[in-house]
Amino acid sequence: MSTRARIAILISGRGSNMVSLIEAAQAPDYPAEIVLVASNRPDAPGLARAAQAGLATVTVDHRAFSDRAAFERALDAALREHGAELLVLAGFMRVLTPWFVEAWAGRMLNIHPSLLPLFRGTHTHAQALAAGVRVHGCTVHFVVPELDAGPIVAQAAVPVLPGDDEDALSARVLVQEHRIYPAALALVASGQARLDGGRVVFSEGSGAAEGALLVPGLAWSRSR
Q1: What pTM does this model have?
Q2: Of 55, 62, 113, 213, which has fewest CB within 10 angstroms of its CB?
């Protein structure tokens, strides 16, 4: 019997991080299996990519509901119908209400394109360039009601180079997003990273270095 955690991925667009997760989950020893890709937009390109990979997909169009609460109840029902145990947000462009976040508390991850707590919200690369920081990056964190404020599972850093614009910096960060999201999900799905009093605690041998930092390029593996 499989003991892999059952994962649902939520997307609104092309789902580039979704693709990195799909590729990681194809390995037989990866501790999570993707059971559903859900989107709030029926035209999200990522839905076709997920279907091509043989994954179940569903659309819960937020425009079809009278309010946010009704949309989230329908989304929650779809996720539970497919037996999802963990949720992974991959470019899901809807702010979730406290009701939904609490319903999945400790079981929902997001990736944010900055080294939180720096540069929350949108346009993070422009924020980083305007601030003149020399290091930028991305963060995988548990979702809490406050936006981009959840306990951190993993971070990866990149240099900000002379002459960088938003596109160049974004591309450099995206490479690291695709590396650390599968690694962070593996830690959570295998129980090697868990929430304890609002912080993430790592088990010995999890591969995490210096607390919540994952060095870029760190491979997931239960044997490491």
Answers
A1: 0.90
A2: 213
